[in-house]
Design brief:
Shape: globular
Strand content: 15-25%
Largest sheet: 7 strands, antiparallel
Pathway: Purine metabolism; IMP biosynthesis via de novo pathway; N(1)-(5-phospho-D-ribosyl)glycinamide from 5-phospho-alpha-D-ribose 1-diphosphate: step 1/2
Protein name: Amidophosphoribosyltransferase
CATH topology of the largest domain: Glutamine Phosphoribosylpyrophosphate, subunit 1, domain 1
Catalytic activity: 5-phospho-beta-D-ribosylamine + L-glutamate + diphosphate = 5-phospho-alpha-D-ribose 1-diphosphate + L-glutamine + H2O
EC number: 2.4.2.14
Organism: Chloroflexus aurantiacus (strain ATCC 29366 / DSM 635 / J-10-fl)
Number of domains: 2
CATH architecture of the largest domain: 4-Layer Sandwich
CATH class of the largest domain: Alpha Beta
Distance between the termini: 34 Å
């Protein structure tokens, strides 16, 4: 059999093409995290269901995708660079037969965007085959990696997710349950894991509950775990509950079973899941995120009112907050920008003339709605400030008389070290400039951010249950200033 037809070995030409796919316009947003998915179902095409689950989680990572399937004897897998629909087709899914599966869609946080870092990671161990999908970032990955190398464990990637896989494969313990418990004692930082063995699926969430992970049930007694509840609805599964912080859940054909629960003294949910990352139709802590984001807009309107004619959003992520701002302020909500949702999916790079057009590749302004108007432009966050200024100019060129920028999150002054590519200190515009300095940089008539207190108030939760590191510099665990490509071979 030709090596390129083996499960897990992508076609070289497909890989080269996918690695060349680069966004044509830089987003002024935090980098996404990753999406993990797992399923146990006796009489279902689990690979196909995993494909559609990953499709629903595509917003969490667009660099690579992979699926691993167990038939009770061995694990077969396939992964490659690119979007879920680019990586998989009928030919790639057909060999992935079994009754349990995990899937992963990646945005790089530790380790660069290349095939060696794509997930799931699949290895053979003394207890049999093992596949791991990981969302998050270990803050002690460097120390754990050194330990593995000193023990003679060979590592093929620069990802902390491979470190997790090898820790489980060769770690202490006579069973997978024991190995997972030991791992949770050793690991620091953020991790949501789907772990596939020969005969079980494990769902693991870090003790701080930094990122979401939920459990769902199919009507035919199958069970599903996913980063977000939106993936459950896509495949017809019903939301059951969230995996608790510090919980290990084992899922077999007999159903789910909690085998360990080791929460920390406090939880520290990522606030950016509420602001931007998770899909607005997903549920966190019993509330649909769309409603929380509308509440953020209402809080923003109370804190930073404006005398204006219309409220518009930077689509699509800021739309709920803009609706809330309009509702609370009484200023009519309107559309002012139309987003080209496919510009980041092309393999064809723009020439110099198109690059000079910049933001126009991604947004078109609705001149009839903007001409002569005083505009409140609502965005959910400003990270580097590299697209907000061009958007303000685009609105002015379309005839807007005034542009008042309102942001439904506080200024981002610190990087994230817990699973989000939030940019470095020098790149963060709010770390370098005052709010007035940012306003001048954007060319806006006014600029205001939602306060941290207002943001947390919009969630309806206790302030002590969140990680606020990117806003305050205070992290729930000890962090280390490292580059995400620190483990790359130079």
């Amino acid at each position: 059999m030709n090596d390129q037809s083996l499960p897990g070995v992508p076609d070289r030409n497909d890989t080269i093409a996918a690695q060349c796919m680069l966004p044509t316009v830089s987003d002024d947003k935090p980098g996404h995290e990753c999406g993990v998915f797992g399923i146990v179902a006796a009489d279902a095409d689990v690979a196909r269901l995993t494909f559609f689950g990953l499709y629903a989680l595509q917003h969490r990572g667009q660099e690579s995708a992979g699926i691993a399937v167990s038939n009770g004897r061995n694990i077969r897998y396939y992964k490659n660079m690119g979007l879920v629909a680019q990586v998989f087709d009928e030919e790639k899914l057909r060999p992935l037969s079994g009754y349990m599966a995990i899937g992963h869609t990646r945005y790089s946080t530790t380790g660069s965007s290349k095939l060696e870092n794509a997930q799931p990671f699949v290895v053979e161990s003394a207890l049999g085959p093992l596949a791991v999908g990981h969302n998050g970032n270990l803050t002690n990955a460097a120390a754990l990696r050194r330990e593995l190398l000193q023990r003679g464990v060979g590592l093929t990637s620069s990802s902390d997710s491979e470190v997790i896989t090898q820790m489980l494969a060769g770690g202490e313990g006579r069973t997978w349950e024991e190995k997972l418990k030991v791992f949770m004692v050793r690991a620091q930082g953020a991790y949501c894991l789907t772990v596939l063995t020969r005969d079980a699926l494990y769902a693991v969430r870090d003790p701080w509950g930094l990122h979401p992970l939920c459990l769902g049930q199919l009507s035919d007694n199958g069970w599903v775990v996913a980063s977000e509840s939106c993936a459950l609805g896509t495949i017809g599964a019903e939301f059951v509950r969230e995996i608790e912080p510090g919980e290990i859940v084992k899922i077999t054909l007999d159903g789910p079973q909690t085998i360990s629960h080791q929460p920390s003294l406090r939880t520290a949910a990522c606030l950016f899941e509420y602001i931007y990352f998770a899909r607005p139709d997903s549920m966190l802590h019993g509330t649909v995120l769309h409603a929380i984001r509308v509440a953020q807009g209402r809080e923003l309107a109370r804190e930073a009112p404006c005398d204006a004619d219309i409220v518009i959003a930077v689509p699509d992520s800021a739309t709920p907050a803009a609706i809330g701002y309009a509702q609370e302020s009484g200023i009519p909500y309107s559309e002012g920008l139309i987003k080209n949702r496919y510009i980041g999916r092309t393999f064809i790079q723009p020439d110099d003339r198109l690059r000079q057009l910049g933001i126009a590749l991604k947004f078109n302004a609705l001149t009839d709605n903007l001409a002569g108007k005083r505009v409140v432009l609502v965005d959910d966050s400003i990270v580097r400030g590299n697209t907000s200024g061009p958007i303000v100019r685009l609105l002015r060129e379309a005839g807007a008389r005034e542009v008042h920028v309102r942001v439904s999150s506080p200024p981002i002054r610190h990087p994230c070290f817990l699973g989000v590519d939030m940019a470095t200190y020098p790149e963060l515009i709010a770390h370098r400039l005052t709010i007035e300095g940012i306003r001048q940089h954007l060319g806006a008539d006014s600029l205001a951010y939602l306060s941290l207190e207002g943001l947390i108030r919009s969630t309806g939760r206790d302030p002590s249950t969140f990680c606020t590191g990117c806003f305050t510099g205070q992290y729930p665990v000890e962090v280390e200033l490292v580059d995400k490509e620190v483990f790359e071979v130079r």
